[in-house]
Amino acid sequence: MTRRLTGFQPTGHLHLGNLIGAMRPLVAAQDRPSIAMIADLHALTVEHDPQQLRANTLQVATVLLAAGVDPERTAIIANSQVPEHAELHYLLESATGYGEAARMIQFKEKSAGNKGVRLSLLTYPVLMAADILVHDIDQVPVGDDQNQHLELARTVATRFNARYGETFTVPEGIRPENAARIMDLSDPARKMSKSAPSAAGRIGLLDPPEVIRRTITRAVTDTVGVVRDDAGNQPGVTNLLAILRACADREPGPLTSYGALKREVTDAVEAVLGPIRARYAELSEDPGHVRKILADGRARVQPRAAETVRRARTALGLLD
Fold this sequence. Notes:
Blueprint: E1 4-8, H1 16-28, E2 34-38, H2 50-66, E3 74-78, H3 84-92, H4 98-102, H5 105-111, H6 119-133, E4 139-141, H7 147-164, E5 172-174, H8 209-217, H9 235-248, H10 258-284, H11 287-316
Parallel strand pairs: 1-2, 2-3, 4-5
C-alpha cells in the first residue's frame, strides 16, 4: 500500500488555504499509511524565537488533531524528534551538488541582499529530501511552489540508487483531488500564505468570528458587479466562489451582489472553522496529551526511519 507524507511548517499560524489544500486531503486519505510531519527543523534556516518555535510546533499538532487528523491512523511527528531526519540529511549531501541547492528559488529569494544568510538555508532542500526519503514515502502532495524541492528529492534518490545501489523509494508528487487553490483575499493574484507581508488577505484557522467577518468583508473584488467565475478578469470574486464551494461543499446558488456573496462565504467559513476552534480549545487544556501523541508518532515511524538510514550508511561504506 502506498505511503504518503504531508508536511506543515510551524512558522506563523495555519490558515484556510492549509486546511483546504493540505489538511482535508490528509484526513480523507487516512485509509492508507500516512504521516503528518511538522517540519520544525526547517524553521532554523532563518532568525527565530526558540520559545515561539516550540509553541508553534505544539499549536500545529493541536490544530491537526482539531481538524480531524486521527493519530491512530496517521502518525503525527515533529521532524526534530526523529534524529534519523538530520542524519540522513548529511548523508544525502554526499549525492547532492552545490549548484543544485543554490539554484532553488526559495534560497535565491531569501538570500538576495541578505548578508546574514545561514548555511542551513542553502542545504534545507536536502533536509526536505531526507524528510521524505527516510520514511520510504511513495506519494507527496505538492503545490506549484513545492515542485522544485520534490524534484530535487527524486533526483537525489535516483542518483544515490544508481551510484551506491538500490536504497531509497523514489517518491512521486500528487495533487489531491478536489483541493481548491485558495488565494490571498487582498491580492488574489497570489496564494494565501503565512509568509505574506500583510495578514489582511489571510483567514487563520483560529481567527475569531469577528476577524473572519472583517477579513472577508474587505476582500478585493472588482467593478464588474456580476458574481461569476472569471479568473482572468475577476480573480477576487472567483476566489470567493472557490472558498464558498470548498467550505459549503456545494455549488453556490444565485447571488445578486458582492455583499451577498461575502455574507454567504462568511457563514460557510465560520461553519467549518467554528468546530475546529472549539476542539482546539479543548485539546489546549491538556498539552501533555498532544506531546504524548507526538511521542507515539515518533515511536511508530522511527523503526522504518532507522532501517532506511542503516541502508544508506551501508551503501556509502560506513561502519555499523
